[in-house]
Amino acid sequence: MSSDVQQAGPVTAAERILYIDMLRGMALFGILAANMRGFNAPASVYGNIKVLFHGQADMIAQGFIDIFIQGKFVTLFSFLFGLGFAVQLTRAEARGAKFLSFYPRRLAALAVFGLIHGMLIWWGDILLAYALGGAMLLLFRKKSQRTILWWAGGIFSIPIVIMTAVYIAAMFGKPLFGNDPNKPPKPPDMEKINSIIAIYSHGTIPQMLHENWVVWKSEVISALFGFYALGLFLLGLWVWRSGIIDRLGEYKPVLKRVCAWCIPVGLALNTFVTLANLRPQTSKPTLLGYFANILTMPSAHILSAGYAAGLAVLIQSDAWRRALTPFAAMGRMALTNYLTESILCTLFFYNYTTGLYGRVGPAIDLIPTGVLYGAQVVFSNWWLVRFRFGPMEWFWRGLTYGKFPSMRRDEPLAALAGAESASSGAL
Questions:
Q1: Helices (H), 277-390
Q2: Distance CA 380, CA 383 (A)
Q3: How far apart are CA 83 and CA 422, in angstroms?
Q4: Angstrom distance (rounded) from CA 182 to CA 284
Q5: Distance CA 105, CA 112 (A)
Q6: pLDDT in tens, the chain (427 residues)
Q7: Which residues are paired to 408 by β-bridges?
Q8: Distance (Å, rounded) from C-alpha 185 to C-alpha 386?
Q9: What sign has the CA pseudo-torsion 304, 309, 312, 313?
Q10: Residue 44 CB: number of other CB atoms within 10 A?
Q11: 10 Å Cβ neighbour count for 279?
């Protein structure tokens, strides 16, 4: 093994940032809640779940998720991915190691995890997109803070520019990308939707695996989200370099102002977007629809900033820090917990066990969401009392550094293994 890899091992326990783990662990609840409708219904209705579930309780539950959760926690996970990248880069440089001697292997392993997850378990995988975005992030490891912010802003502006061009073209009757604004929107293909529901709720294992493959192929284009996520990665890189995470106490007044502004503004914008998306679809573009579209991602990012700042303020209180510390274990096992959520939820909803796929809506989905997340918090704390790493984190480290570290806490720790990494979460 090269000396570079030996020097580049995971950061020690003393270097771990508790705030990062807490934020990642708490964000896993939002990821699970947002993904639940994807575990329980076809991909084609993910953005319009009312096609299947029309009850008032389901509409209220989904409205709550859309306003407070949807898009907010994938924002935080993307931000934390960039922050974790910066932590590893900083530690590697401090130890005199070459970052490129191990990080590409880390990304390659993540991409393989994503391919297996997406093709065999659940179509809504994010790991492949993160691996692609992480590869692009390598290009910015030596860029200035100013350059990083300019690139992040440019990436965030691309969807807005494209949607504006589409709207203007549609207003003049010149459709872009083959969309004719004069044609009414196509109704959902209920025959196809019901056939997918039948496969997952009553089909055989080969039929379900085949449908996984079919859906994954149709959704693999979503891996291009990695390019947009690069903007959030860059913000995480910028924040770490700025020293904010290391000096949360000094930035407390600023964090309070961010929380005080971003949470109410973010909630107002997300409420507007959610309500606007409930309007009946029309064949003509509308100004209301245009603003709902361009504000979808910025509104999620604004509220996410409020959440992150709020947690940073809360943990500066001893009582709050003690109360929230159990969520840090969840964050230290983020990859394990993320994959476990997909495995257990598909096992539960598919014909592997209950066959409830497509039969229970967002309101009922809140119950398994809370039960599973609570169980994961308990299990993560139990596991990390006995072991240094989560199972998938251990496996990922071994693939990254070319040597598998000792797992149990009562075993001597190899020099390479160090202890937990502040970038342990995959997401």
A1: 287-314, 318-324, 326-332, 334-349, 362-386
A2: 5
A3: 9
A4: 6
A5: 11
A6: 444 444 544 444 434 589 999 999 999 999 999 999 999 999 999 988 889 998 999 999 999 999 999 999 999 999 999 999 999 998 888 888 888 889 999 999 999 999 999 999 999 999 999 999 999 999 999 999 999 999 999 999 999 999 999 888 888 777 766 555 556 667 788 999 999 999 999 999 999 999 999 999 998 888 889 999 999 999 999 999 999 998 999 999 999 999 999 999 999 999 999 999 888 776 677 889 899 999 999 999 999 999 999 999 999 999 999 999 999 999 999 999 999 999 999 999 999 999 999 999 999 999 999 999 999 999 999 999 999 999 999 999 999 988 888 888 776 554 343 333 444 444 5
A7: 387
A8: 56
A9: negative
A10: 16
A11: 11
Query: Distances from the Cα of 108 to the Cαs of 113, 339, 402, in angstroms?
Result: 9, 17, 13
Ordered DSSP codes for 89-130 = HHHHHHTT--GGGTHHHHHHHHHHHHHHIIIII-TT--HHHH
Q: How far is it, in rounded angstroms, from Cα 293 to Cα 405?
A: 47
Which has the closest alpha carbon to 80: 229, 295, 282? 229
- Between CA 284 and CA 171 the distance in angstroms is 8
Cα torsion 306, 311, 314, 317: sign: negative
Residue 273 CA to residue 269 CA, distance in Å, equals: 6
* Contact criterion met (CB below 8 Å) for 107 and 226: no
Tokens of 313: 């303020």
Please report, as a single letter, which amino acid is at residue 47.
Answer: G
Are residues 123 and 212 in contact, defined by beta-carbon separation less than 8 angstroms?
A: yes
In the numeric block, which tokens belong to residue 342? 């997909």
Q: Are 56 and 381 in contact (CB under 8 A)?
A: no
Query: Under 8 Å CB-to-CB from 86, ≥6 apart: which residues?
Result: 236, 237, 240, 241
For residues 404 and 320, what is the distance between their CA atoms, to the nearest angstrom? 36
The percent helix, strand, coil of the chain (3-state, each to 5) is: 70, 0, 25
Residue 415 CB partners (closer than 8 Å, separation 6+) = 6, 9
What's the pTM value of the predicted model, to 2 decimals?
0.90
In whole angstroms, give the CA distance from residue 402 to residue 369.
Answer: 36
Distance CA 273, CA 294 (A): 9
CA distance readout (Å), 263 to 19, 271, 371? 19, 12, 27
Taking the alpha carbons at both ends of the chain, their separation in whole angstroms is 28
Report the C-alpha gap between 66 and 26 in whole angstroms.
17
